[in-house]
Amino acid sequence: MSTDPVTHTPAAMKALASPLRREILSHLANHGPATSTTLAKAMGQNTGTTSYHLRLLADTGFVTELRERAKGRERWWDVVKADRRLPAREEMTDAVRDLAERLGDSRLAEDLRMLSAFVRDRDEESDWQQGSRAGTFMTKERLKEFHEEYLKLVHRFGADRDNAPEGARMILLRWMGFPDPRGS
């Protein structure tokens, strides 16, 4: 994975706005390289749909074609590993800010659906669940520093699919820090 953060372009944010494209990225991150046919089968789509979305994801740098695996017309794709981030809010135009907010809303809804499903089934998987709620006072600068340290921890303790130890599972981590809207 690239160690330098990659800032999302508006085109990349539009690409991520599609739940199906995010599902494709998740599938590739979890299961490894795939063709449009195998993705279509896994997602209940047709190959034309998955081919279209794969090309769009490739155009925006999220996936890459594995030409060495190609056989005839069969094209293999894999996720491009990178530290991807939204542009700084002060650098966004109104249109880009609106796009980022819609993307955030869509991702949050998806996260809530996954968390709700996990909570319903937690008795079977309870030892895989870890979490906490906390509140503390920080300056904006300390919050940014905390965020960078969090990302370092994710890289230190986590692994990508190709380097994961036996028995490892994809763990979804969601961290966010924001001022309490009920306070000053």
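(ticket continues) Second input and output from the same batch:
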Amino acid sequence: MGNREKLLIAARECLERKGYTRTTARDVTEAAGTSLAAIGYHFGSTEAMLNTALHQAMEEWGDRLERTIGDAGDRSSSPVRRFERVWAQIVASFEDDRALWAVLSEMLVQAQHVPELRESLTASMAEGRSGLAEIFGDIAAPADPGSARLIGSLCQTLLTGLMMQWLIDPEHSLTSGELTDAFRLLATTALTEH
């Protein structure tokens, strides 16, 4: 394993243990067994390395979610049931990947002050919207790219908000069933009003 891979593994471990703002270059290089110069050589900066490590972790989460959702997306189930199953998997990931979500929420705040981080997160969010559009588009069957973008954006908004609620107060955060029921109530109300 090369220094770049060692640094990324160590960066993820440090991010999970210490968070984004408290992880230093020295923390990562000590954990990786490399020199400080290796960060500059492979990534250009500590922030770029941490952003790369987090982006990699989010991609892996997306891949795991897609594999897990393959089972949840059984086409013999109704779209509502599949919607609920997919959200059940997402909510389960909040528990399984709590450290990842905590770091991501910390980065969202930091992005307001660090333009490079904002750019990186903007790109990651675009990928995330696309992935969510693909996952949920399979359920909603959007007719065009504009509809797929709307579905992906709505699901990303729900995911971010639900994740923040879950990190702060998991006991009172919506379950996948409650989220599905809330959507039913909104849809019923919106479609019956004149």
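Agent notes: The mean pLDDT is 86. DSSP finds nine helices and no strands in the chain. Closing as not reproducible unless the customer responds.
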